[in-house]
Design a protein that fits this description.
By secondary structure, the protein is mainly alpha-helical. The protein has helices spanning 9-13, 31-37, 59-63, 83-86, 90-94, 98-105, 114-129, 135-141, 147-161, 166-175, 179-191. Helix 8 runs antiparallel to helix 9 (147-161), helix 9 runs parallel beside helix 11 (179-191) and helix 10 (166-175) packs antiparallel against helix 11 (179-191). The longest helix is centred in the middle third of the chain and has 16 residues, at 114-129. The chain starts with 8 loop residues before the first helix and ends with a helix.
């Protein structure tokens, strides 16, 4: 039995409208699902809605009136030992290689999604951030071994730079071998902005 009653706060607050109706969650639109469980490309129409979430989302929990009864834990093991580990700079995540990812996240829940998904998610957050500080690491990620990282880095560069990204994207397209990355880049070039 549900305790929600007539409350619709989570439905209204969800950035991706992942609740199509009360008591129903469409995981295909849920930021937690997309950033943690979804293994391939995130749909382009959902990317702007992800904001700066790179690992999960708490919006529905933050607005839920039942959360007002939750008490902070006194268990020390639930508190972060290193703030940089739980809230690193976005450009640092974009620059992660496999070794640094292993060193930083081994033994944490983030380690389960692997470097590729975390960096893919950071690419989306960088595109939504829109700051030029993200351009150098995103440009470097156009050469990443993972096609989904290359795809999302291209999207982010285009989102930040608009038509100024076209020279880089055209150069990438000339030697890109993955069909899905090629389609993404061509779509970005065809938008004309």
């Amino acid at each position: 039995p549900t305790l929600c009653g007539s409350c619709t706060r989570c439905l209204k607050a969800c950035p991706t409208s992942a609740f199509p109706q009360p008591h129903v969650l469409d995981a295909r639109r849920c930021i937690s699902y997309l950033t943690i469980e979804h293994k391939t490309a995130i749909d382009a129409h959902l990317r702007p809605l992800l904001g700066n979430w790179i690992y999960g989302c708490d919006v529905c929990q933050d607005v839920c009136p039942f959360q007002r009864f939750a008490l902070p834990t006194t268990e020390a093991t639930f508190y972060p030992s290193d703030l940089d580990r739980i809230a690193p700079k976005l450009v640092d995540i974009l620059a992660l290689d496999d070794i640094t990812f292993h060193q930083r996240y081994y033994g944490s829940p983030i380690y389960r999604i692997k470097r590729e998904r975390l960096v893919r998610n950071a690419c989306i957050a960088a595109g939504n951030w829109g700051h030029t500080d993200a351009i150098p690491p995103l440009r470097s990620l156009l050469s990443d071994l993972d096609p989904y990282i290359r795809m999302h880095a291209a999207w982010s560069l285009h989102r930040i730079m608009k038509t100024d990204s076209h020279l880089w994207l055209q150069a990438q397209l000339r030697h890109e071998t993955d069909i899905h990355v090629r389609e993404e880049i061509q779509s970005l070039l065809d938008t004309g902005n």
